[in-house]
Amino acid sequence: MTAPLTIDEIMRLSPVIPVLVIEDIAHAVPLGRALVAGGLPVLEITLRTPVAMDCIERMAGEIEGAVVGAGTVISPQMRRAAAAVGAKFCVSPGLVPGETAGGPAPLLPGVATASELIAGLAAGFTRFKLFPANVVGGVDALKAFASPFQQAKFCPTGGVSAKNAPDYLALPNVICVGGSWVAPADAVKAGDWGRITELARQAAALVRT
Q: The pTM is what?
């Protein structure tokens, strides 16, 4: 049996992790397939809609080559529930009290400050989501974190776009970025999977340092 992927391994699969808010379960599998076809195999399904858990289960079971995870995980119960339906990783907007790097699915916790980074490192984490990146300093914040927190690597999310993603990916302490621009709501609603595959292809071609 193949060992589960670590959060570091998952983050290195592609330069962009699509952050997906899926309202209609009928869109889940074709959306995921379009993104994977474009070269983005890691899919973060945010737990912000009533169908999110069902979407994770279907996408994990039906999309070959996809590494499906859960976003907006804000409690240990949500982490366990996501893992139970097939999530290979979880992402949180902050540090979830009591949660550690070990658990039912690798967790990428969010941080915004040096104090949160220190708390996260003390809990055993070395990989973090900077969130909301555009509000808490973005590229400049990550540059400032680089020297005192050399063991920490990041996936900035929040306000990341096709335009500024290269600036983030040029930083040595950034492994990947998270963003929703690869799956525009109008394209998802219209079922324009070809457009989404092309956006994914462009994102997958972004160069990391």
A: 0.96
